């Protein structure tokens, strides 16, 4: 995209805006402020803090991409493992699954030649800087293709989640996608609710660094304080309450009264006076807890990431345009559908998946969190009915908060547009020499292939830039094997322009040279005060003395700046922009204001770094969790191979196993274990989620785990002093993996309930290496 193209392209406001003198002065001021904030020559506390923050943001962006790729692998393997469990997978499919567990080998594979790299550099610059192409592509691809494309779009093409230019271009792409979604919608009710590529995009966007950071800062404390109360039962479904009540009576008395039969219908359960008496105080408490969650969310409005608020704003304005008769109530339900359904509620229902809590919450708090999410959803959607009849009893919560939630959802939309700053970001990008992305070969080839599939729709005219570039690139190379899928550094630049080396030339036509001179001089004075810290305390600033001081130091950079700024002051005085007799008062005041802004900025930078460090830790923890899951799949596949070889061989269990391409006879299965763990150990590790063992007996309880054959385990619960186990349970790794795949995170051992992912991790740790 050339500079001239930007200025005159349809829909661009630049040609109109460039006639507005004040806007230009503001833009240039902002540009020089940005230069002063990030000056490479300055090495004060602010500069160092900013450098740390930039590095941290880059690490978060890179780690987020790794997590997205791992999550995709885990999702893929979940679906394939189901087939393996049912023994419906052919051998070649097993090999395909194994490939998803291979690490990339940096010594294998090849790089495309220089000419191809240059063509891809041009193509990806065009895709990044003109988001309409990607927006159209996201609408054209199938649901099975969207994840791979999203990986490239969200984590590579616009992967720097904290770089305003990339973020703004990504949001521009969202606007185009949403606008098309509204154009093609057949009915209001289905908008944004179905599982489509667009809804997948929106969910993926909320899972980036800023969204994760918000969820952790706003929800983690609330959820953690709730799940501490493991025994607080707030069930309000009359059928379940009735069953729990009947079980308790039977346990206490040893029998059931005739008037309390099991398996009664909902109507009978809900009219039972004892059930009503149990539910009444629970309803009050649930509404209090839901209120506290709601207030926390409403109070956090200022910290909702800009991009998420901006998407809410687009939903509102598109709804008003497409459905002018839609009520405020209906519009808010669409905004709430995105904000609560796609963003807030998944984190409340499964806080462990968002790393907001350690381990899976216990049974009762887990149910309470689900009920709270349902209440918030009902409030945001404001349906005239409740899917479950018992939820109607919580209607007062919806009624009492209607106005408040509408106000909040409308306020969420009150954010500024970024078109002014985007144009400035584009100017800045054109002057940068290091516009680059880190992209894998398969991402390159996959994006290339998808564009070619849809090129007639994306670029019908053969004179358009996208068509020219794809014609030159030719056919897309095939995907390379996972081991050879190297990451390359791709410099982005356009072939339709000479890169603008100096920001001033980009703005010269619209900004007077005196304005430019004034801004640059001010920027240099700010840098000088930052570089000579003892000057910062002397107010008002004596600009002439500062320039002289810099020009006579022993630092060559400062000397150069000091001499330059003295000359600039002289020129500005000649053209009567500043006046030496008043001590250059105008500039002196602006330099002071800029330094106050930078002082405040330092605090903000330090604060932001602290909050992002916790986000980075969360993302790394999640990465470890995902890696653990992949390790379990590796162990499982090894077990499948061993069992398959046994089935082929005799009943002695000796078959043929292929190892590194060579066949060798496996040894007879060896019993591993028993390995011993105390109740306290497993509780500390979060493996025991709930325990019915009385506190005074827990020190005498221990567990022995044995593996008689690969993939089969026996967990035995023992009481010190007794020879025989109190309880033994046979476990197949298939069953545990299937439980995990189906999101059933609890394993019931009668006396204790165990966390399935953590049991898998323990078995993998203890037995996989032996």
UniProtKB/TrEMBL annotation:
Bias (Polar residues) ranges: 1-11
GO process terms (BP): negative regulation of Ras protein signal transduction
Entry-linked Gene3D superfamilies: GTPase Activation - p120gap, domain 1
One function term, GO molecular function aspect: GTPase activator activity
Pfam families linked to this entry: RasGAP, RasGAP_C
Keywords: Coiled coil
GO CC annotation terms, alphabetical: cell cortex
Protein name: Ras-GAP domain-containing protein
Organism field: Jaapia argillacea MUCL 33604
Species lineage: Eukaryota, Fungi, Dikarya, Basidiomycota, Agaricomycotina
